[in-house]
Structure formats: structure tokens, C-alpha cells
Amino acid sequence: MSSQANVKTSSTTKKNLLGEALVSHKLINHEQLEQALKRRSQVDMPLGSILIEMGFITVDNMLKFLSKKFGVPSINLFKTDIQPEVLQLIPQEKMKKFRILPVSVENNTLTLAMVSPQDFMTISDLEFTLGKKIKPSIVPFFMMESALNLLSENYEGGINGEDIENLSMHVSKDTQQPPGIEKLFTYLVKSGGSDMLLTAGVPPSIKIGSILKRLATIALTPANIEAYAKELLSTDEWDIFNRDNELETGITFKDMARFRLTFYRQRNSVSIAIRHLPDKIPSLKELNLPDWLNDFALSPQGLILISGPAGSGKSTTLSVILDIINSNRRCNIISLEEPIEFLHKHKKSNINQREVGRDTADFEEGLRGIFRQAPDVIVIGEMRDKVTFETAIRAARTGHLVLSTMNAFDSTAVIQTIINMFPVEQQELIRLMLADSLLLSLAQRLVKKIDGTGMLLALEKLATSHRVRNFIRENKIHHIRSQMETSADEFIPMDVGLAKYVKAGSITYEEGLLHATNPVYFKDLTE
Questions:
Q1: Could you give the 3-state DSSP secondary structure of residue 324?
Q2: What range does the domain containing 22 cover?
Q3: For residue 117, what are the CA distances in angstroms to 72, 78, 112, 121, 440?
Q4: Which CA distances in Å does 340 have to 281, 355, 410, 498?
Q5: What is the reported pTM?
Q6: 35 within some domain
Q7: Which of 103, 383, 384, 459 is deepest in the core (most CB within 10 A)?
Q8: Are residues 17 and 85 in the same domain?
Q9: Does residue 43 have a pLDDT over 80?
Q10: How far apart are CA 245 and CA 449, in angstroms?
């Protein structure tokens, strides 16, 4: 027998020692071991991790066994949160190279999670470089891999045990195949993330707050994502996507939850953004929205605009206002949305939700005949062009309440954006019409909580009083900020709300400054 064959036999025997030991302790049987060894020949994973993956042994029993076998404590990383200052003790490169993870420090002793707790050279090296005593603890390979994968991202908030478990238990570990689409939807819902992003060249990623995290699985290929797209889209929708290179739609996936799907092309491959939509429409209190919104929502006519950057929760706020109307007024509501995100039930009002691309060709076509549908309230998912603006203003001036969203920096920029949509010779008329019809311009931002547990909604209010209407008519919109910033109920700048969050200890000063519309004023408010 050649020396190469001897080495291979020795290696295989070593790999079987754990399995035989588990059989001898009656934690698994011989048939289960054989199935796991067959699986072991197909993927590059330790036998213990495969046994857990296949359901032949529980995590707790494996941890107890490993602890007894190696004579060191075990750590269940699924139930362990690691603080950022602890993670910073050891460079990422070293953690990944030696499969180690600092867990906690107490009395100058560092508890170190290890796949190989008998690696005394690594332990000795760390004790010398850190000046701390090392207390080694055993963890299974797959658990360590998921934890180390999180280190590829921004871990300023530390590592959460639930995130490690989600990565390990809800994502396929087959190194040759990406997760199925149903597993991805399930993971997004369980993780508490807002979005899942599928892009060629990287693993599936989720957004929790403003932090992007990649799942512990293989990088997706263009073919993988195209297969996801074809699974999610009908034949007609796939044809439309191939024609336009972008498509938005909303689905309720297998009664699990409702999602907004955005398909687009980049570098000649398909990308998909998946937004998890709440099961129920939140209340004003749940979103930290002010009670005075009720008064505007129940106005019989006028224009209410909600603005902010993409991903700032405009659609959610719009749905909350719409639900207030639906719950309190007896009227006919017509909405045009692309796509429909929140499904509203008929309450006191009749509510007709029309999806652009399905129920009507586009916003312009949907608005063309809207007055013949006897609406009392008109909802336009997003105002983007001159025709949409013109129809919305005309409707607001003729006895209808109109709600819509816009991408704009602040509540006054909204007004200027609308006016600039029109030719110069029409702008004077539009200013007059807008001054008469605008009820409320509400700008919003989502800001990170200081403890990293989520986001808070910061608002800017501009309500049209007699003074505000005159500023709009006279093309003196910039005076709204300069003359009303500190002493007007009708105008409450974003900086005021941000400063309150800072003083309450809810957000950092730096986070508030990042979103401030007037940094100097914001600094004055926080001193």
C-alpha cells in the first residue's frame, strides 16, 4: 500500500472516531452514522455538524458530549450575545484562521469559544499578546462558522445569538446549492429584517435597520437569481420584466406574510429586493406619530403629502392615515399604488385599491377616469410626473381629500419640487393652486436607536396657515424656514424632533446631526 493511501486511511479513521464514540454512548446508531458519513463525502463539513444538520443528535446533547470528550466547558452560541468591545480584542483574520471567538471577559480571564480547544499553541499565543488568561470552551464547527460569517459585516452592535441561530438553522448548508426561495422568505420574517437583497456575486443579504448582513451560505450566481425570479413571477410578468428591465409587484407568499418585490437588472444580471410588509397596519402610537395627524386625516378636502428618502417609511405612514379615514368616515376611497403594499379591509368606508400594471396601465391612465368613480378620498402611491401633480392639485381643489408620497429632502423642498415640474409660464398658477389646496407637508426620516435595537421616526411638519399660504403665493418658500423656524405651530422643523431624541438619550448626537436639515440650529437645540 502506498504512503498516500496510508495517509488517507489514517485521516478517514480519525474522522470516524467521533461517530464511533457517539454510537458507543448510544447518542446515534450505526445506520445514522453511515448516512452522515455518506453526506460527509459530499460536502466539506465536520461529522458532528452533519449529524446535527440531519437531525440525528440535538445541539444540547452534542455540546454535552463534546464538553465531556475534550474536558472543557461548552458554549451554545445560539444563546450567547457577544459585546463589540469583546470582539475587538482579537483581529477578524485570526478568528477566522483558527476558528476562535472571544465571548466574554471577567477578572482578566477571556472565555474563548474554539472548534479545537486543544490547540494549546493558539491559546498560549493569545495569553501572551492579550495579557489575559484564556479559558477555552468547545463549540461545534457549524455554530462557529455562522458566528464568524457575521464578522464579515458591520458588528458595531456586537453579535446576537438569535442571529447566529437564524443563519445556522434557517439557511441551507449544502455548499453546492443556494437556499430555496421559501427558506429565504422564512428567514427574512424570523430575522426581523426589513429587506432581503439578492444580487449576483454575494450571498443573500438582509437589512436590519441600516445594517446589511450576509447569510452564511454560498454567493449567488446570475442563474440562481434568475431561477428565483421565474419562480416568483408569472409568465406575463417575466415577459414585462424582460421588456422593461425592471418590475415591482406585491405578493402574499404561501400565507406566510406579504412582501413587496422589486426586480431590476444590473451588469446584465437580475437583482431582487424583497420588502417584508407588516401583517397589520400599525397605529399612530406604534409608529410614534403625533395625535394631531388625526385632524388632518379627517379633513374633507385638501392635499396631504408625505416625503422623505427611499426606505424612510412613507408608505407605512400613508397607510396609517388611510386607515384612520377608513375607520372614521363613511366615504368612497380610490387608491392607485405600484405595487399594493398594505391590504385594507372595508370598514366604515368603501376602499378600492388599484394596482398599477395590473388594474390600470399606469398612474396617468388610472387618474384619467378617477373622477367618474365617485371618489371622496384619492390615494396616489407616489407622485412622479407633471400629469400626476396636476390631477392631484385639481382634485384637492374640487372637494376631494388627496394623499400621496414624494421623494424630497424636506417639507418645503416638496413645494418647490412640484412647482418646478411645470413650465415657467404655468408656475404662477400652480403656486396659487398649491397655496389653496395644500393641507400638510410631512417629511420623515428613520434614525438609528442608540442601543442598536431598531429605528425611530423623526418628523417635520408644515401645515398651511394663512402666513404659509402667502409665502407660497409670493414665491417666498425659503422664508418659511428663516422666519418660522423657532416660533410657529404650523412649522416644526426636523431638527426639533431630532434634538428631543438626543436629549432623551434615544439617539446619538452624531446620528441626529447626520439627518439635521440645519446643523447650526440642531447644535443650538442640543446644547
A1: helix
A2: 1-57
A3: 8, 19, 9, 10, 63
A4: 13, 6, 25, 31
A5: 0.64
A6: yes
A7: 383
A8: no
A9: no
A10: 37
